[in-house]
Amino acid sequence: MPTLARSASAIVLTGRTLVMSQALLALVVFVLGWFALGSGANVKRGNRALKWLQGGLKALGDKATVRWIGTTAVDLGLANAKAPFESATLVVFLAPRDLPWLWALSRARGRRDTLILRARLQKPPVADLELLDRASWSGRDALRGMKDERWSVREPAAPEGLAAYTRFEDALARADALEAEARNAGATLRRLSERRNETHLELHVDLPADSLDAAAFFRTVRALGELAARRS
């Protein structure tokens, strides 16, 4: 009888081990399959964005260096940008579709495919200001970097408006002019930053649809640079 009991226990353990092995194998297959599909989707999305950017990028500069950062970002650098810019970097920031848990977490936090412009101007701005969609990933990320600084805040007048953060009240007119111009870009605005001593101009928008006129979008970006460089 003891021998039969031990045999039965061994069979049960073997069965459990087999079930766990099959479950683990299924999980590995699922993750690898998701990774392949997600990576492929991001590469395809990034290449489409690069093609779209080519339709208007000459408004900022004639030659850009392109660098993929994994499968979640494409970096385009313009070392010799056209006036009013001194230099500019564009980042196509993609959701982490290659890993299911990161993708789910990023969706829950409001992270979306985003186009980011960071630029230095030939003439630095005279004011510091931030226009933020605080519900967005871009807005929350900016607020984390601002928590140790002193800002005056003007709440948005409409649900789709942006909160305006300024050092001085007279900068609100600049903020309004910049926001009005940025709306002409035709893309959903998440963050617009003007700074005197750091990245002079930073723009975050939802990655534009392929149907948006890229040339018109980048004409608006140049206009934003011109506004930010004004001395009054």
Strand order of the largest sheet: 1-2-3-4-9-8-5-7-6
Low-pLDDT runs: none
Number of folding domains? 1
Helix/strand structural class: alpha+beta
Portion in beta strands: 15-25%
What's the oligomerization state? Answer: single chain
Walk me through what this model shows:
The chain is α+β, with helices and mostly antiparallel strands and 232 residues long. It has one domain (43-229). The chain is built from five helices and nine strands. A nine-stranded antiparallel beta sheet has the order 1-2-3-4-9-8-5-7-6, with helices on both faces. β8 and β9 (201-206) form a beta hairpin. The longest helix has 53 residues, at 2-54. The radius of gyration is 24 Å and the shape is globular.
Compact description:
The chain is α+β, with helices and mostly antiparallel strands. It is 43% helix and 22% strand. Helix 4 packs antiparallel against helix 5 (214-229).
Question: Could you name the key traits of this structure?
Answer:
5 helices; globular; 22% strand; alpha+beta; 232 residues
Compile the SSE list and pairings:
Layout: H1 2-54, E1 65-69, E2 73-78, E3 85-93, H2 100-108, E4 114-121, E5 129-132, H3 137-146, E6 152-154, E7 163-166, H4 172-183, E8 189-194, E9 201-206, H5 214-229
Antiparallel strand pairs: 1-2, 2-3, 3-4, 4-9, 5-7, 5-8, 6-7, 8-9
Helix pairs in contact: 4-5
